[in-house]
Amino acid sequence: MMAEYEINARGLQCPGPIVKLFNQSKLAQPGDVIKIEVTDHGFTKDVVAWCKKSGWELVDMQEENNVIRATLRKN
Amino acid sequence: MNQSNKKTIIMFSGELDKAMAGLIIANGAAAMGDEVTMFFTFWGLNVLRKPEKITVKKGLLEAMFGWMMPRGVNKLGLSKMNFGGAGATMMKKIMRDKKVNSLQELIDQALALGVKMVVCTMSMDVMGLHKEELIDGLEYAGVATYLGEADEAGVNLFI
Question: Is B27 on the interface with A (CB under 8 A)?
């Protein structure tokens, strides 16, 4: 069973969103998905760097009304 | 490419803004999965002081240093535009309004993420600060420990 986690990191400033992401990622198994919502604009670049470093796949990222929604999958 | 997963940060300064910069990088690095060691030396020790007054037996000069230096995260000034503490108060208000983590929160979070905080024992001795006056969760060591860690680190900062 693949698990899907949702993180609301709205309103958090750097490094809050990636810290939340990291803490959740530690509980994930390969194939699991994390969906995260962030309002800190630096996150669009940060999440790419985080994925590169941690080996997660950035499946999707969209921005709407100043909210960034990213979907990540653990490889 | 051989990438090191270790970071070392020397925390030399005792100002709010500089301490925040160091702690934000430390938290970020830990969130990237890195092993982070922070070495606190000289004025950086004031960041780790407990806010309350701790009674420890001290010589006159040691005691004077203790009185004159800021006691903990809430007493730190800014490195620029401090205006006798008014600048730091304003900065803290702005950061609260914008939901930036406080320095205390950043320290707690860093320790929870496994960031190692090592205190220079020589600096403690020079500045007359005792273990009882510093927060819990710290390690105590000297320059060789720092150098050993820095040798293995891919990034080393002096703040």
Answer: yes
